[in-house]
Amino acid sequence: MAHDVLVMGSFVADLAFRTPRLPAWGETLMGGTFALGPGGKGSNQAVAAARAGAKVRFFSKLGDDAFGKMARDIWRQSGIDDSLTGTCGEATGAAAILIDAARGEKNAIIVVPGACFTLTPEEVDAASAAIRSASVFLTQLELSAATVQRGLEIARAAGVTTILNPAPVPASPLSKELIALSDYFIPNETEAALLTEMPVESVDQAEKAADSLIASGAKNVILTLGGRGSLLRMRDGKSTLIPAVNAGPVLDTTGAGDAFCGAFAAGLAEGFDAAKAARFASACAGISVTRPGTAPSMPLRAEIDAVLRPL
Ligand code: RIB
């Protein structure tokens, strides 16, 4: 069976706390609310793509534990084929998410990837037929760099469109080889600033940072700019500013970048050009921020279409 979008990435359980501020070292702080739910950038993006209408296959590794069961549940509910994802002896990972109680727009995350980080380049080789049969291959950096690189190499060699969301930005410099394997390289403004060591506070600066990433080898760059939308910068020098979509009051922006990447991949797989796919992705992200959580906040295709219709 052909799969439109193959997402290779992480699943972790999200432990989300609403808090008035970040605690200091040594301090215990009383929080507001707590929620436990499915997360991990890879899985969130797979859920976004599937709910946006793509046929999705998710490739990762899980622990044989309650968080692993949580993963399979959200994938089943979202219609994702998880047959490539195995179970191993390592525990499924978790993320501590601190959300600003007053303004859901700010968050801070610590992620411990656990089982998914044991996915090896050799296991990626074993899944190469599935990667080659996809139209779009989407991945992030919550797996080891060697594993991500192998996936991108297999997809690139087979002519599959490749998307790399360079999140989280690793402590050691990202290799140019990895950047050059991406047809679409999709950082947010913080990630772009870290990767280029350039300020990314205005659209002009975003364009310069995108050009620097293209000079490092990325074919095309989409720099997401939160409430200001996103900048699509193509290798031929063409720029398109895609406005953010306001779908209601912002409750929680965690996972908005994942909503964007997943829906963008789904749009490309459906045959949209990059600008149309980015507008579609912007609508998906705009809806997701009106809801709590990450994977559970991803909208269905009908909801995205309803938001886009009047625009
Ligand atoms: O992008 C948001 C995600 O980052 C969260 O779901 C968390 O698990 C971390 O991986």
Description:
- The structure is a single chain.
- With 311 residues, this protein is of the alpha/beta class.
- The protein has a single domain, classed as Ribokinase (UDP-N-acetylmuramoyl-L-alanine:D-glutamate ligase).
- It contains 11 helices and 14 strands.
- The strands form 3 sheets. It has an 8-stranded mixed beta sheet with strand order 4-1-9-10-11-12-13-14, sandwiched between helices. Strands 3-2-7-8 form a 4-stranded mixed beta sheet.
- A hairpin with a 5-residue loop joins strand 12 and strand 13.
- The relative contact order is 0.16.
- The model has no long low-confidence stretch (mean pLDDT 96).
- The structure holds alpha-D-ribofuranose.
- Alpha-D-ribofuranose binds next to strand 2, helix 1, strand 8 and helix 9.
Key attributes of the depicted protein:
311 residues; alpha/beta; UDP-N-acetylmuramoyl-L-alanine:D-glutamate ligase; eight-stranded mixed sheet; four-stranded mixed sheet; 14 strands; 23% strand; globular; binds alpha-D-ribofuranose
Fraction of residues in H or I helices: 25-40%
Radius of gyration: 18 Å
Q: What is the structural class? A: alpha/beta
User: How many structurally independent domains?
Assistant: 1
Counted by DSSP, the helix tally is 11
Low-confidence stretches: none
Strands, count: 14
Instruction: Kindly report the spatial arrangement of strands forming the biggest sheet.
Output: 4-1-9-10-11-12-13-14
The largest sheet is: 8 strands, mixed
Oligomeric assembly: single chain
Query: What ligand molecules are bound, each kind once?
Result: alpha-D-ribofuranose
CATH top level class name = Alpha Beta
Provide the CATH superfamily: Ribokinase
Q: How do the SSEs run, as a string of H and E? A: EEEHEEHEEEHHEHEHEHHEEEHHH
Q: How much strand?
A: 15-25%
